[in-house]
Amino acid sequence: MEWQQLEYFATVAKLEHMTRAADVLAISQPALSRSISKLEEELGVPLFDRQGRSIMLNRYGELFLYRVQRMRKEYEKAVLELQELNNPELGDVSLGFLHTLGTSIVPDLIRAFRQQHPHIRFHFTQNYSHSQLKQLLAGELDLCLLAAIDTEPPVCWKELWRDELYIMVPIDHHLANRKSITMKELEHENFVLMKKGYALRRTADRLLNAAGIKPKITYEGDEVSTVAGFVGAGLGVSLLPDDEDLNPNKVVKIHVEDMVCERIIGMAWIENRYLPPSARQFQQFVLDYYEKMGPSRERD
């Protein structure tokens, strides 16, 4: 059964005349008759009662016409939806990003983008990097903002910016008056870190391991603000990016002087996969935005 057969059937049902229907459809009357006969044969029931030159829907035809009309409406609706999605100013963007980017970075980025493209809709997912990559490969996400990862085709990843990571200590900590310290000075400290699985936790583990430190972890959190809150309460120190939610009356940030402590954030997408114009537009906006800013930056 072909869509064209359904169009032919609906036209004949409306006009109840084979010759006039053939004229409207711009095909020969015999060709139209053969198409209707083939459709009836495939369905296993007659759709019309024929009396001489007149042709009228029977009860099977009426039931089938009702379903065909609903199918045509759904088809027309789908066409309109696809046209809307393909409109660079009206489409959707499915964006995944790390939990730690949700406080200000992503909201600020979306706000700047929507000043130029106010009607584009976003669908957000916050998750671990590996979970987002699975969603990206499955086609559930258009783009992801992730920490530096080892990628293989078809995943593409491009660096956008770098955040310095600081040692965060309580304001009454014995190191709180220092501008910089070595990582080794933290050897006997208690640590508050992000939970396993988070990109920021993997980075912290790597840096501490490089410094020969096996941290005593007292608490683990899901959010930077939670970890910083535990630090401020005097329950340990941490390795975190600067964040506007950090309370300067409770937490002090200290530069690490003996090694480069940073996280690298970039954007991932699938090579050669179709991206709707709205997603392509957002992708280019992000690339241009951070190219102007430069790869290394320190948030105020």
TrEMBL record:
GO terms for molecular function: DNA binding; DNA-binding transcription factor activity. SUPFAM superfamilies: Periplasmic binding protein-like II, Winged helix' DNA-binding domain. InterPro entries: HTH-type_LysR_regulators (IPR050950), LysR_HTH_N (IPR000847), LysR_subst-bd (IPR005119), WH-like_DNA-bd_sf (IPR036388), WH_DNA-bd_sf (IPR036390). GO terms for cellular component: cytosol. Residues 1-58 form the HTH lysR-type domain. PROSITE patterns: HTH_LYSR (PS50931). Keywords: DNA-binding, Transcription, Transcription regulation. It holds the Pfam family LysR_substrate. Belongs to the LysR transcriptional regulatory family. This is HTH-type transcriptional regulator GltC. It comes from Lysinibacillus sphaericus.
